[in-house]
Design goal:
Number of strands of chain A: 9
Oligomer: homotetramer
Structural class of chain A: alpha+beta
Radius of gyration of chain A: 16 Å
Largest sheet of chain A: 9 strands, mixed
Distance between the termini of chain A: 42 Å
Helix content of chain A: 25-40%
Shape of chain A: globular
CATH class of chain A: Alpha Beta
Strand content of chain A: 15-25%
Chain lengths: 208, 208, 208, 208
């Protein structure tokens, strides 16, 4: 509904929407998307994400992580999530990845046992490719680390673990979640779906 | 307040509002309305509902479900809710039906016993035709199914059950709700009324 | 900040804001304000309140309740709250009254014992004239009735009860609240203040 | 992203955003920022904060608190928070201070023992300079007073207490919080960060 040529604009609109939802407040969170094979659009770090404009993105080499094009604003630095984003893209063929700092992701991750959240009995599960409402869906949850690049090895381990073959999200305890899709629109969809699942788990647990 | 000639525009605005309310996130939910006798405007499936535009609607035959007019965007497919929508329209004379994926509808449906939610002690009940605040209003809740067309027979049974003669909504466990009105404006009103009732039931149950 | 000549416009903006807050959904709630001595601007009943336009208001005689001017749209009828609104205006010298259908007002009213909510230990109490944060503020709560005009005698009794001399709001069990101010801006302020108080009471009670 | 020359405009936009978040309703809350060394832009008191316009600000002497420039609207009076704001600026070198009336700040302050909230196990802690996610961060909480200027001595004591050397916020029981940054953008960031922390503490405590 928005042409691919407007991809930077689309990423900015998603950041605004996610900010309105409270998922990336306090300059937290991030987003990236493949502009073309090998070239990754990456939002800057440490800025108010809802105010990111199309000209603020870095273009990064997906394989090496090196900056191919930098924004003209020399004060900007590329997102600290870059290494995790590139790992998800390479391991899962993702075209876009969202990093959420939503409270619901934190509260849901609190409930994970043995490194995973179990999600079941929810129609919204159908929003995940290959998953249906009668499935027991496992969302991996990793421990938080002092710096985001240190999460890379945990994320790498998750992405090669058969238990989590169907997941399009990884929770990070006390922190939030990484959520991806094969393109930006699917990443938007999955971001909404997983936040719904997180909220549902938290609400149902409050009753148990 | 918006002329009937703008009905497609009105449906799009309602989708935007319902999305802002969190009722149709993750491409979930849907909407339909009679454009004229026998011709049903039906939103497409699998798209970000808040971005649906007037030219994206299908026109479907109310009796047969066959597509009379398709949008020029050939990638669009008609909503999977079509059969349920048409059943509600035929059985209840509805002019518009909303399908909600709200968390409050899921959490309220969790509380249903013997296939129904009991709603009472709420002024908002007066928002439902023929119901008053001193009534004990029964909202039917059906089990979820693997695919939405399979819900048709449950919905059909509900709509011919005398216990539920006054309901303008059907909850679907783990899933959401179908809510209708005699026209689009009444469907909007009932959608807001039933979501308020769902939220009230969930909040009051949390205290019990 | 908006001139008095724009009073109808201001009332419409407040309805939009209150609707966004979830306080007047499902065509519920209402608003009125004195246009000039004796002439009361009254929103119509049974319409989607967030879509009320300046030309939709009735002008009603404050003393008799009779319609002085009706909107050109002949399908509109004056709010059912008219009698209660006029009672508050006459007894308390109010210049504007809001009728809320907020869930927080319902849930707070559930907690009232002996016909009143006790509000204390909140800075927000200072938003009410003559009340300070060290006061124990009593908000009267009346039983709901089948029709809103029947509430008039309960409201009249409350407004002449010395216990409630300082209140600018009356809760209605299972229903919502009436909140007023000496003019529209103060009614807006008090509406926000009392909703904050309702939400605080409900949240704190959930812990007790 | 918005030039410093637009600082008044930026303060107004932040007030609008904070109002939308429910942090400064009912004319509560406030904001200030250094326009230049010694000159403090101060919002007016007792007005609907989301409607404050650039021309409504006072310019106040940071050292003495005396008004250097008053808005042309003679009905406006400077914020009651002025003395507390100036204390924070002088003691901590802050460039901007926000006063929040958020319910989450009140509910979190309810949980403080021995004058402090303990915040830990949250990535969002990294949004505070010199604090990391493995730290145990202490947020001071002072008792409320009848009038805001009386809080000045409690605030002064907090700001010279070594236990709270790293805090950029002070909770006020039953009331809200003061939150600051070295400039307006950092104050915005810290405001969002601390509200997230308050919400997280309240949600996690509800489970304990």
């Amino acid at each position: 509904m928005i042409a691919l040529s407007d991809q930077r604009e689309l990423l900015c609109r998603l950041l605004q929407r996610f900010y309105d939802n409270g998922w990336i407040s306090g300059t937290g969170g991030g987003i990236c998307a493949l502009e073309s094979p090998g070239r990754l659009l990456l939002a800057p770090t440490g800025v108010h994400k809802e105010l990111v404009a199309p000209e603020h993105f870095f273009v990064v080499d997906v394989d090496t992580g090196s900056v191919i094009e930098a924004p003209s604003d020399a004060t900007l630095r590329p997102s600290e999530c870059g290494d995790i984003f590139r790992t998800v893209i390479r391991r899962r063929g993702a075209g876009a990845v969202v990093h959420s700092h939503a409270l619901a992701a934190v509260l849901a991750s609190d409930l994970a046992a043995e490194g995973a959240l179990v999600v079941e009995q929810l129609e919204m599960l159908k929003g995940i490719p290959g998953v249906t409402n009668t499935d027991r869906h496992l969302v991996p949850v990793v421990a938080n680390t002092a710096r985001e690049p240190e999460l890379v090895s945990s994320v790498e381990a998750i992405l090669t673990d058969d238990r989590f073959a169907r997941t399009w999200a990884i929770g990070v305890r006390d922190h939030g979640a990484y959520i991806w899709g094969s393109d930006v629109w699917e990443a938007k969809k999955h971001t909404e779906v997983y936040h719904f699942l997180f909220e549902a788990i938290v609400a149902r647990e409050g009753r148990a």
